[in-house]
Specification:
Elements: H1 4-9, H2 17-38
Length: 52
């Protein structure tokens, strides 16, 4: 059984360790934002400027 991370990595073209690292950073960001959305964070707060 594949983990969710492995499935998500399948969306990227991974030709180097740098590609792999950048893909993992994006995936972690997606997961963090999903957690904030599920916790209804965005009903009371928002990111703006450099954090958007």
């Amino acid at each position: 059984m594949d983990s969710a991370i492995k499935i998500m990595l399948g969306r990227y073209s991974l030709n180097s360790s740098s590609d792999y690292e950048n893909a993992l950073k994006e995936i972690i960001q997606e997961i963090a934002l999903l957690g904030l959305w599920r916790a209804k964070f965005f009903e009371k707060a928002a990111f703006y400027g450099g954090t958007a």
